[in-house]
Specification:
Length: about 750
């Protein structure tokens, strides 16, 4: 079953409306509704807060502020990952960023809660806030580490000497804006108090992190917090940790002893969830006339919140991508009084490759060399900074296969040289790389007496296909048809995982299920081999074959259901798991990554500078693929996200208040169907035995890595206009358009 294009097993439930998300749970009965009141300043202090009118409003049960909120735990900086730390709210009068919660109104209906929220009166003493990124040069500092615990800076060889002696040099700055995950399902939570326990229905990506964070914030035993999240409507990093709506719902439910439900509005998500930091990236490339890199440097400065540091690993991708003897990478942070930075899909790689792969395109033009050939000439034989072999690297194959399928030989060699009616036409390409991560994950598989199997893990499904691929892995491991396997996910009562995120979810959970199936098969064989009533009695289990619900050894065979019913009438189960990659020697001995190549064709209106994607192709190497249908969907989704980063996505800060002024989908633009005419993703056959026993690696975020640069490079090829301040908009292209005769 592994590798088959099985349709989503949860698809019928979703299209029929039977898949229940956090806001749709009704087991607790009719809940109360909460509405968050946010600060209307970006920095300062509450001097007066009047809740009397709100408390008298119809249906209101509670108004919570910092004056009456229960005591809460504080963030423990010794916990290495932010998602597991306490997330206190309403702890004092100080305002740290615009929109920060200053009150919660709980009422009988949502309408009553929102109406009463408007009646809360707040007065502030406004402080001087730092809201403008390019005005904070004097406060830039060096973080101790960057995201995922990676080193802040690296240096190999003598960059200055290598760069200065290079025949051709590129030295450019690229800027990327604030970006948001913006999943379709807003951040929502329903908390039901049951005696001393809390049942928390929440939209989250990591169940264990949510349980630990809530318990730490409320100061209670984590065993008292029961997380339920069977379906999640997208996360893209924004739900790796829990947010204020969850803590506020929990506080209110405990205080009122009634279920409380809160969902952020779309506008609140822009201010309360966190975003990809804005960045300024300096990329320097020094090469010989033959195109071989002598020196490469990638220096990044980005925003951070002064209270909750976040350093996106934006330059880390450059460390493994291309060969060059002289190398530098660095990360610097500029503190701003804005919401904290957080993981947005493909954190680090997405903005970093947008800059580096644009710079590589500039180098190709400076050398008058095919951009594909330039990348192939700089293919390393070992990881150029770690000096260890790659586990399984097929970037060159992706480049060549993509060029062949795309028709790259028809690329216009000279910018602005091809016109199709009113459209200037251009081709662009880029490489893609992303690290593969592994975290501790456990799964339990139970064989029932009727021969069906049940898989349990707190792993979440963000809509990416977890239910489906785990069905395939279990069916494959136990020799069952998919309809004989049931997957149960998203409950803290199940074995713990690292959830969905970082492209580690599928491989972690599938490996854990695979190992649990092996252990379960062993238990079945031991039972049959020692049972005189079984035709398998005394036979060598090494020759056993599980298929169609039976186990066979030589010419003897018996239904597994009979073995289980006879020896384990209540069913038999086993667990399997993975460990943290820091404890796996393969991750020290090898550089383990995924790879790809993007190709894009765009049209640019010669008069208006309107940019339209015409077609896009990605070719990827990700090891073994569990399900080509769901993998292709993931990759295409990432490619479209890259298109948005190149041409549309940009959150704009009001420098007076620190508020995001375009905080809705009318003004924060993302690609829609009309923007995406023809996108395809091809996955090469592969098996990386160093990544895990199944030979598979992460897929979800690779599609975005480099995708935006391919589009940006195509815009340059079409127009001759190089835009280094993303996104590329009409205003930035129009002044440089060539004058063409009608």
């Amino acid at each position: 079953m592994i590798g088959q294009a099985l349709n989503r097993v949860d698809g019928p439930s979703k299209v029929a409306g039977r898949a229940t998300y956090a806001y749709e749970q009704w087991e607790a009965g009719r809940p109360l509704y909460g509405s968050i009141v946010g600060a209307t300043i970006g920095k300062g202090r509450i001097t007066r807060i009047d809740t009397e009118s709100a408390e008298r409003a119809p249906g209101v049960h509670m108004v919570m502020t910092h004056l009456n909120a229960p005591p809460q735990g504080t963030r423990d900086e010794s916990i290495p990952f932010e998602y597991w730390r306490a997330q206190p709210v309403l702890t004092g009068p100080d305002i740290h960023h615009y929109g920060e919660p200053v009150a919660l109104v709980v009422a009988t209906t949502l309408e009553q809660a929102r109406a009463a929220a408007d009646l809360v009166e707040v007065e502030y003493a406004t402080g001087r806030g730092r809201f403008t990124f390019d005005e904070q040069d004097d406060e830039v500092y060096i973080p101790k580490v960057v995201n995922a615990g990676l080193p802040t800076d690296t240096a190999v060889g003598d960059f200055d000497a290598g760069f200065d002696s290079a025949d051709v040099r590129i030295d450019q700055y690229y800027t990327t804006p604030y970006e948001f995950s913006m999943p379709m399902e807003p951040h929502a939570c329903l908390v039901e108090p049951r005696d001393e326990d809390l049942i928390v229905y929440v939209s989250c990506q990591i169940v264990d992190a949510a349980q630990t964070s809530i318990a730490s914030t409320l100061g209670i035993d984590p065993a008292r917090v029961h997380i339920v999240t069977p379906f999640v409507g997208g996360g893209f990093g924004s739900k790796l940790g829990i947010h204020s709506e969850t803590i506020l719902a929990a506080l209110a439910a405990r205080a009122l002893r009634q279920p409380v439900k809160i969902a952020m509005t779309r506008q609140q998500i822009f201010q309360l969830v966190g975003m990809r930091p804005t960045s300024s990236q300096r990329v320097r490339l020094g090469a010989g006339q033959d195109g071989r890199l002598a020196a490469i440097a990638h220096d990044v400065t980005m925003h951070t919140n002064p209270d909750v540091e976040y350093a996106e690993q934006t330059a880390a991708t450059t460390r493994s991508l291309y060969a060059a003897p002289h190398r530098l990478t660095s990360h610097r942070l500029a503190p701003l009084d804005l919401p904290r930075g957080t993981d947005v899909r493909a954190p680090g790689e997405a903005p970093g490759m947008l800059a580096v792969e644009s710079a590589m395109d500039e180098l190709a033009y400076a050398l008058d060399m095919d951009p594909v050939e330039l990348r192939i000439r700089n293919e390393p034989t070992v990881d150029p900074e770690r000096d260890v072999p790659y586990s399984d690297r097929h970037l060159v194959e992706c480049l060549r296969e993509g060029a062949r399928r795309f028709g790259w030989e028809h690329r216009p060699a000279a910018p602005a040289s091809v016109r199709d009616g009113r459209w200037l036409v251009g081709y662009g390409m880029s490489a893609a790389i992303r690290g593969h991560f592994q975290g501790p994950t456990a799964a339990r598989v139970r064989w029932e007496a009727d021969g069906t199997a049940v898989v349990q893990t707190d792993m979440t499904d963000l809509g990416t296909g977890t239910y489906t691929i785990l069905t395939q892995v279990a069916a494959d491991g136990l020799g069952l048809s998919p309809d004989r396997v049931r997957i149960e996910l998203g409950r803290s009562d199940f074995p713990s995982s690292w959830g969905s995120g970082g492209s580690w979810g599928a491989t972690n959970s599938s490996t854990a299920v695979h190992r649990a199936c092996l252990a379960l098969r062993e238990k079945v064989l031991v039972a049959a081999g020692g049972d005189t009533r079984s035709p398998l009695y005394g036979l060598d289990p090494a020759d056993a074959v599980f298929s169609d619900g039976n186990v066979s050894i030589g010419g003897a065979s018996e239904a597994v259901s009979e073995i289980v019913a006879r020896n384990h009438p209540e069913g038999v189960e086993a667990e399997g798991g993975t460990r943290f990659m820091g404890d796996d020697p393969n991750y020290t001995a090898y550089s383990i990554n995924t790879y790809g190549a993007h190709f894009a064709e765009v049209g640019v209106d010669a008069d208006t500078a309107e940019i339209r994607l015409r077609r896009m192709l990605g070719v990827f190497s990700v090891g073994r693929v569990f399900n080509p249908k769901t993998a292709r969907s993931q990759l295409i989704g990432g490619m479209i996200w890259g298109l948005g980063a190149a041409l549309e996505e940009e959150a704009v800060v009001d420098p007076r208040s620190g508020a995001f002024v375009n905080r809705d989908f009318a003004q924060y633009l993302v690609p829609v169907n009309a923007d995406v005419p023809d996108v395809d993703a091809i996955v090469l056959d592969g098996f990386d035995d160093k990544a895990n026993v199944l030979g598979a690696k992460g897929v979800g975020e690779l599609g975005i890595c480099g995708a935006g640069a391919a589009v940006a490079n195509a815009v340059f090829n079409a127009t001759g206009v190089r835009v280094r301040d993303f996104p590329i908009t009409i205003e930035k292209v129009l002044p440089g358009l060539p004058l063409l005769e009608a």
